[in-house]
């Protein structure tokens, strides 16, 4: 009789352990979803500041050669992705960039140099804030950028 009682206690303990593990897994997934939504909301609230941040950082890179960054306008919603190489959250943002040719540069006589150029700006989320190093993928929408870079995995929309 005591052997049957022991079996029931062990089975009950294992069942409780399994339920606890499932509950922790659910809380972990919920926490990640909340974090993604927090990132999304922070980006929406501060997008004008990000235009300035991108303009400054991208202009400092010296790329493209012969052109000076004049303006950058966000033209749509950010697409949030996870960079599987770093585990971090990245925002891919459609932008329209205006340039002016550098005086005496190679692009000064090129009429198309002043045309607005569509691109996808790259922002990273770390230490509770969005940052950019001025990385821009020209002639790509955010969806095309996700396709072009396999290390980027689109995050689901929860809102």
- Arithmetic mean of pLDDT: 84
Major β-sheet, in short?
A: 7 strands, antiparallel
Q: How are helices and strands ordered from N to C?
A: HHEEEEEEHE
Q: How many domains would you count in the coordinates?
A: 1
* Unreliably modeled segments: none
Residue share in β-strands: 25-35%
Radius of gyration: 24 Å
Characterization of this structure:
By secondary structure, the protein is of the alpha+beta class. The protein has one domain (37-154). Helix content is 42%, strand content 28%. The protein is built from three helices and seven strands, in the order ααββββββαβ. Strands 1, 2, 3, 4, 5, 6 and 7 form a seven-stranded antiparallel β-sheet that branches. A hairpin with a 2-residue loop joins strand 4 and strand 5 (129-131). The longest helix has 44 residues, at 2-45. The chain is rod-shaped and about 95 Å long.
Secondary structure topology:
Elements: H1 2-45, H2 47-61, E1 67-74, E2 79-83, E3 89-101, E4 117-126, E5 129-131, E6 136-138, H3 142-148, E7 152-154
Antiparallel strand pairs: 1-3, 2-3, 2-7, 3-4, 4-5, 4-6
Distinctive features:
7 strands; rod-shaped; alpha+beta; 159 residues
A few lines on this structure:
This protein has helices spanning 2-45, 47-61, 142-148, and strands at 67-74, 79-83, 89-101, 117-126, 129-131, 136-138, 152-154. The chain is of the alpha+beta class. The model has no long low-confidence stretch (mean pLDDT 84).
């Amino acid at each position: 009789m005591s052997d049957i009682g022991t079996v029931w206690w062990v089975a009950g303990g294992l069942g409780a352990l399994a339920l606890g593990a499932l509950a922790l897994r659910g809380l972990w997934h919920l926490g990640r979803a909340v974090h993604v939504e927090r990132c999304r909301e922070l980006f929406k609230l501060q997008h004008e500041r990000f235009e300035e941040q991108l303009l400054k950082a991208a202009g400092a890179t010296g790329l493209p050669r012969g052109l000076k960054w004049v303006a950058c306008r966000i033209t749509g919603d950010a697409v949030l992705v996870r960079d599987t190489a770093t585990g971090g959250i990245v925002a891919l943002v459609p932008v329209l960039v205006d340039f002016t040719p550098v005086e005496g540069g190679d692009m000064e006589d090129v009429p198309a140099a002043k045309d607005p150029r569509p691109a996808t700006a790259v922002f990273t989320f770390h230490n509770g804030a969005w940052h950019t190093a001025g990385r821009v993928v020209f002639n790509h929408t955010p969806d095309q950028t996700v396709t072009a870079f396999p290390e980027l995995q689109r995050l689901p929309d929860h809102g």
